[in-house]
Amino acid sequence: MCYLLRVNTLDQRIVSCLVANARSSYAEIGKVVGLSAPAVKRRVDRLLETGVLRGFTAVVDPEALGWGTEAFVEVHCQGNISPARIRSHLEPLPEVVAAYTVSGAADAIVHLRAADIHHLEDALERLRGLEIIDRTVSTVVLSTLLERPPHPGS
């Protein structure tokens, strides 16, 4: 779905303010975009209702919480399997922080986070042990070069 069709320039500026600091008050955002606090609140409520904004959250450094080892894993499944079925098998694994269906040879790409390389190896073994998995191809992350939130309007 293309959200930009439903989001005008003013909404994009409000979203940009929230991306920069989700704790900004409606009054602070209003000063930046030239609206009253109640007008900003109405627009934010509408952005939440339409799914443009999915919520507000704290951004946590996984390494600070002891989950600094990560890998991306190509998952190749047995036979033709639905994304919903892949998801249902991945959800119980706490090390799976994200999973995506993809084009190409793999059925999905899974992002794993673990405390250390031994924990990662254990998580990979449990992933490979799932009945739907035929094989995996793992890439361990050495460092993060770039990670940024989306910027509305760009």
Layout of SSEs?
Blueprint: H1 9-20, H2 26-33, H3 37-49, E1 69-77, H4 83-90, E2 96-101, E3 108-114, H5 117-128, E4 133-140
Antiparallel strand pairs: 1-3, 1-4, 2-3
Helix pairs in contact: 1-2, 2-3
Structure in a nutshell:
Keywords: DNA-binding, Transcription, Transcription regulation. With 154 residues, this protein is of the alpha+beta class.
| Number of distinct helices | 5
Query: How far apart are the first and last residues' alpha carbons, in Å?
Result: 17 Å
Beta-strand content estimate? 15-25%
Under CATH, the homologous superfamily of the largest domain reads Lrp/AsnC effector binding domain/regulation of amino acid metabolism (RAM) domain
Please identify the structural class as seen in this structure: alpha+beta
What proportion of the residues is helical, as a percent range?
25-40%
Give the CATH architecture of the largest domain: 2-Layer Sandwich
- CA gyration radius, whole angstroms: 20 Å
Mean pLDDT: 92
CATH topology of the largest domain: Alpha-Beta Plaits
Can you identify the CATH class of the largest domain? Alpha Beta
